[in-house]
Amino acid sequence: MTAQLIFKMIIATITALFTAIGGIFTPVESTVCIIGHRGYSGMYHQNTALAFKKAAENGFGGCETDVRVTKDGVYVLSHNSSVVLKDGTELEVADHTLAELTAKPLKNSKGFDDVYLCTYKEYLEIMRDNDMICFIELKGSFDDRQVKEIFDIAAETYDLDKCILQSFEFDNLLRARELFPDLPLMLTYGEGDTGYERCFEYGISIDADYKVITEEMVKEFHDRGLEVGLWTANDIFSLSYCKSLGVDYIESDNFAK
Question: What gap in Å lies between CA 186 and CA 191, rounded to an integer?
Fold first, then answer.
């Protein structure tokens, strides 16, 4: 993290504090939507039904998740290609069936509750029941059939207007654009990535690491009517900085506001 970015974060935090104090007398309304990164993952094991339900209970506006496919073709949620079970067994998602992957609880890094691998459909049901935004990141490359299945499930279970497809893989976004022309799309963009300008040709928004975004980039997207999301603001300094940029979405493990 550069010294310039740290300075901007400190200034943004100080400004936010004075704004909050002033808000005691003059309420300030924020339009940014805070997205639970893999659910309320700061407190509960990531990408589980528990983490998504707790995000809803604690006021997050939506949840981000990571979609993978099992050996028997079921869409499940895991950031990594493998999952670790409570007994220490590590299983590759793509090499095992849903039954094998859910036969035992996951190793719970955030508590003592038994938590299990969550299916994509279960996630959508939780989001639907709580009227939340779905950030759906496809991990790896998906073919046309899979992309169609994933968002047919979303349309049947919830509402495509509440879903935003995210991916580092531009081809995944282009496949979805062909199949679902009205589906909101976001390029996932991190440190070392280049070529975000390609988004402008296809009308694709961006979800960027807050450490690489610039005010100029935010303006470029907003001037074209495209949205900007940032990840992952897990302390008060980064959260205040992200808010100061006037973006549309901020992903956080810890903060709902």
Answer: 16
Residue 37 phi/psi, 5-degree rounding, is: -70, 110
Looking at the domain assignment, is residue 232 inside a domain?
yes
- Residue 149: CB atoms within 10 A of its CB come to 16
Return per-residue pLDDT of the chain as tens, 257 residues. Answer: 676 666 556 555 655 554 444 444 444 446 899 999 999 999 999 999 999 999 999 999 999 999 999 999 999 999 999 999 999 999 999 999 999 999 999 999 899 999 999 999 999 999 999 999 999 999 988 999 999 999 999 999 999 999 999 999 999 999 999 999 999 999 999 999 999 999 999 999 999 999 999 999 999 999 999 999 999 999 999 999 999 999 999 999 999 99
Beta carbons of 225 and 253 less than 8 angstroms apart: no
- Per the CB < 8 A criterion, the answer to whether 106 and 91 are in contact is no
Q: How far apart are CA 217 and CA 224, in angstroms?
A: 11
Q: Is residue 19 part of a domain?
A: no
Residue 56 covered by a domain:
yes
What is the domain-level CATH number for residue 219?
Answer: 3.20.20.190
- Answer whether 184's CB lies under 8 Å from 227's CB: yes
The total number of structural domains that make up the chain? 1
- Tokens for 169, please give them: 């893989």
Distance of alpha carbon 166 from the chain centroid: 8
The domain in which residue 56 lies consists of 31-252
Phi, psi of 87 (to 5 degrees): -85, 5
Query: Per the domain annotation, does 37 fall within a domain?
Result: yes
User: How many Å apart are CA 31 and CA 194, to the nearest integer?
Assistant: 29
